[in-house]
Write a structure and sequence with these properties.
It is built from 9 helices and 6 strands, in the order H-H-H-H-H-H-E-E-E-E-H-H-H-E-E. By secondary structure, it is an alpha+beta fold. It has one domain: Cytochrome P450 (Cytochrome p450), CATH 1.10.630. 26% of the residues are buried. The mean pLDDT is 91.
């Protein structure tokens, strides 16, 4: 279990954060909304140092960052760290739709494609919309892992799921409160590199400028 979290959780988390920053660059109003949510949750009055901000992000604070959690989930829905996965059948079985599999069959599923299926996510399936994860009160509403399959499901569900969310929320909160991110080249097409994981091909180049809260009215 420890090996899974410490080894398997490196490239996957880094990839998700890269796509998250890309989404923030493409949706500056969402970037602003998250930065404001973080400040409100931890009741920031001044411009803290990075160390002071990180120290204030305890588990309770992270749990209250509902919009940030929704935005990370929406990023992973569209850009899952593992775009394709497979399972081996240990015995003959018949699925609910009547399809039969035999012992030894390899069943491949694609979280990348499933995250963009209109039959699962509606007509706006390919649109980046964090609000789809929030209820009418603005609280995060999780989906079935068999629908949001990026972390797998059932007995083989990712052991490091909550650990990954905690890492991503801390890093995202610290970065967005302190900096505004924009793409270094707005015209450059950003695409993925086909691997076991889903890294950005060639990396992601951004401009980070200080977020000056005290200069705002």
């Amino acid at each position: 279990m420890v090996l899974c979290v410490t080894v398997a959780g490196q490239d996957t988390t880094a990839s998700s954060l890269s796509w998250f920053v890309y989404m923030m660059c493409k949706h500056l109003h969402i970037q602003e909304k998250i930065a404001q949510e973080v400040r409100e949750v931890i009741n920031l009055k001044d411009d803290p140092s990075v160390d002071e901000l990180a120290a204030s992000l305890d588990q309770e604070a992270l749990n209250n960052m509902q919009y940030l959690h929704a935005t990370l989930s929406e990023t992973i829905r569209l850009y899952p760290s593992v775009p394709m996965n497979a399972r081996m059948c240990f015995s003959d079985d018949t699925w609910p739709d009547g399809f039969s599999v035999k012992k030894g069959d390899m069943v491949v599923y694609q979280p990348y494609a499933m995250g963009r299926m209109k039959s699962l996510w509606g007509d706006d399936a390919e649109k980046f919309r964090p609000e789809r994860w929030l209820d009418k009160n603005g609280l995060f509403q999780d989906e079935s892992p068999y629908k949001f399959i990026a972390f797998s499901a059932g007995p083989r569900i990712c052991l490091g799921k909550e650990h990954a969310y905690t890492q991503m929320k801390i890093i995202s909160a610290v970065l967005l409160v302190n900096y505004i991110f924009k793409l270094a080249d707005e015209k450059k097409i950003v695409n993925y590199k086909t691997m076991v994981s889903l890294p950005i091909d060639g990396g992601l180049y951004v401009k980070a400028s200080p977020r000056l809260w005290h200069a705002k009215p």
